[in-house]
Amino acid sequence: MERVGLYLRLSREDGEGESGSIESQRLLLRDYCRSHHLTVVSEYIDDGYSGLSFHRPGFEQMLGDIEKGLLDTVLTKDLSRLGRDYILTGHYLERYFPEKGVRYIALGDNIDTGAGQDDLTPFRAVVNDLYARDISRKVRAALDARKRAGVFIGARAPYGYEKHEGRLIIDPQQGEWVQRIFAWCLLGDSCPTIARKLGQAGCPSPTGKGEWSGAMVRRILTNPTYKGDLTQNRSRKISCKVEKSRTVPKEGWVICPGACPPLVGEEDFARVQEKMEGSRRQKDPLASFLRCARCGSPMGITGDGKRRYLICRGRKKGECTLPLIPWDKAMEETRAALRRAGAQEDFQRPFPCPGAIIGEDGAALLGDYGGNRPV
């Protein structure tokens, strides 16, 4: 008995109507199995998932069953249902399925690996990939046009707003917190200090999970949306095949003046930007040189607006308990250790140690991160 798994996929961009619907695919594939005396043991469905990504629940479930030896054949309506990324589609057709002893059939493209490889299959995969790229470009162009027209297209409104029919309206509760954030900044509080105040006051973070961070506060304070100028395109997906996003330079932002209700005045927003620029920390040449003696993580800089401290980045992630170390003390110790090292004969040659290790008392040790030795 040949055990067959039916794979059914439909994405929003396909636009194939009823002929490509999940139910239509199911009827077509089951009719084929009946006429060819094949036994259907499972169906795997991905409704609303793009063919450019293979991270789909139904597809991954099917791979799991293949690994368990539960399938002999995979059947799809056509090759594009399997996927539209020609590189990964080729991997499954030419490597994965043959290695697992699985036969693959795509009805609409007359592909049946059990009858031998079709020389046109790679070209079909490329055409499917080009089609998906073209659709992605058209969708992006349409979305960019809506952004320029002042329509908010994000899945989630910025903190302090609600999304309503493509427009932003003020969320009264969150909006009040946004106004407090700007007021605290104008009073001289740093972003980390504001984040701590928000946490102490029990204010939910923008993600609704975890604590506020200085980066979250900075993102709010630098967003022109809060003065009424709807700002979009601050980040963008790397490509239609890569889910990760990349920060867009300021000149690439799409800003529509007056397209949303303001939460702060123009003058206050401008004053905050001046403060943000003025308080931007100058990079100390030793900042990237320091590591935590307890866990080996890089050291970062934090402060309360009056004093600066070294903080283990592992502590920020909850992975280390090294206490805050006063910046001045740590720098004094580090520079003294470097001066002592430079005075020794064995350091007249190129410096062999990749960094300084900061201990709990702020003292600096020179040496390899794995095997440190005091100087």
Protein described:
The protein is of the alpha/beta class. The chain has three domains: 3-135, Resolvase, N-terminal catalytic domain (Rossmann fold); 149-278, Putative Large Serine Recombinase, Chain B, Domain 2 (Hect, E3 ligase catalytic domain fold), CATH 3.90.1750; 287-373, no CATH class. Helices cover 37% and strands 20% of the residues. The strands form six sheets. A five-stranded mixed beta sheet has the order 2-1-3-4-5, sandwiched between helices. It has a four-stranded mixed beta sheet with strand order 12-16-17-18, with helices on one face. Strand 16 (356-358) and strand 17 form a beta hairpin. The longest helix has 28 residues, at 121-148. It is elongated, with a radius of gyration of 29 Å.
Throw out a few tags for this protein.
single chain, 375 residues, alpha/beta, Rossmann fold, Hect, E3 ligase catalytic domain fold, five-stranded mixed beta sheet, four-stranded mixed beta sheet
